[in-house]
Amino acid sequence: MSIIVGKQTSFRFLWFGQMFANLGDILYIVCLIKLIFDATGSVTYMSLVPFFNTISALISGLLAPLVINKYRLKSILFYSQSGKTILLFVLTISAATFKMGGLFWIYLLICLISFLDGWASPARNAMVPSLVEEGKLVKTNSLLSISDQIVQLVAWPIGSILLVSLGAGNILWLTFSLYFISTALMGLIEQAVHIQAQEDQTRLDALKEGWGIIWKSKQLRTISYMNILETFANGVWIAAILFVYVSEALNKGENWWGFINGSFFAGMLFAGLLIYRFSYLVERNLGKTILWSTFSLIAITLMFGMTSIPWFALFVSFMFGLPQMARDVAETTIIQKSAREQLLAKVYSARGTLVFAAFGISSLVMGWITDEFGVRTTFKVAAALFICSFFIALRGRRYLFGESNMERN
Q: Exposed, middle or buried by CB within 10 Å (0-12, 13-18, 19+), for 393?
């Protein structure tokens, strides 16, 4: 009985630790964009913040298996968050005297913080199955998704308000406090199973192991093909394309850009609550949930991209959340059942690398399509990508509907 209580308590430390870290991540980005714009007045310099974040996380994901092979997941999580906290402390002190000449060091700190986060993410996701009962994975994943959406809904508007009232420097100190609390909570997690490092495994083998697990499992391979296509399709939801959509397709001002974003996150939150309530149905039908959610996203993407009615676009944006959230929770649950502990972390690091790479390319390609052919064409392309993903799911439905065809490690 004490072991179960220990797991539940450790899960709460992981859950709240991640919430504090996520809140800090958003406030930190808000501050950096403001500081860089004040110092340079350049949108280009501002856009380098998400660019460096993505590139650093991509490189970190590729190298993560080397760290996962050597250290316990709890240690990776704790020390990477500690490192982020120390780097943010340096950044906070530097921001007080920030000038144009110090831009290189600011970007370097951004890269290092994002790099450490690339190690923490697969470790954090891989720890969840070891801290909850297998039958409660869907409910747990929906709970974590609800938390993420609440942070997204709250952090951006609150960050903007605090930025005006307190200033960027003070918010950085607040972010440092959030990181510090997150680090303390991560340190309290108890990992019951200790897995010895694989000393006889070469570095190259360690780097390839997560990719190998995905490739050998027809179930994971099917999901990965779908993830690549759907990540490309989701490039239409980046801020720049939505801004053009609101202006050209809906003929509305900047405030509707905020309404559309708010409606999307509200839909995701509502969907998370719904899936949490009916988690037993999703648990029994993981493959079917992925299949029909993907089909629904085809229709919703087309309806959103083709309409010129602002209120209908707002409604469709809200509706997008249900199939998106259902598919994400079902996919996460299948992946978590595919392997255990260190091996699962390697699967997550490989998957994260795929998603980061696909999204980075998609942002550029979708932006180019929007410039050359118009925003409605961009949404047609996205719908076509969802159609391709649906046919992959249809073709591999016997793998999606069955148990994982790899031995659980």
A: buried
First-to-last C-alpha distance (Å) of the chain: 25
Integer Cα distance of 145 and 292 in angstroms: 20
Residue position matching structure tokens 């959610």: 293
201 pLDDT band, cuts 50/70/90, is: low
**Ramachandran bin of 167, using left for φ above 0, alpha for ψ from -120 to 50, beta for the remaining angles:** left
Whether the CA torsion 67, 69, 72, 74 is positive or negative: it is: positive
Which range, 132-146, 271-285, 382-396, is most confident? 382-396
Instruction: Evaluate if residue 83 carries a pLDDT over 60.
Output: yes
User: What is the spatial distance between Cα 312 and Cα 338, in angstroms, rounded to a whole number?
Assistant: 40
pLDDT band at 8 (very low <50, low <70, confident <90, very high): confident
Question: What tokens does 363 get?
Answer: 């942002």
**Nearest to residue 343, comparing CAs of 56, 125, 144, 81?**
125
Residue with tokens 């072991």, as numbered in its chain: 3
Q: Do residues 339 and 409 lie in contact, with contact meaning Cβ atoms separated by under 8 Å?
A: yes
Measure the CA–CA gap between 346 and 245, rounded to whole angstroms: 38
Task: Give the model confidence (pLDDT) of 239-258 as tens digits.
Answer: 668 878 888 888 887 678 77
Total Cβ atoms within 10 A of residue 124: 24
- Write down the pTM of the prediction: 0.78
Structure tokens that stand for 3 in this block? 């072991």
| CA-based nearest residue to 57, from 101, 142, 120, 8 | 120
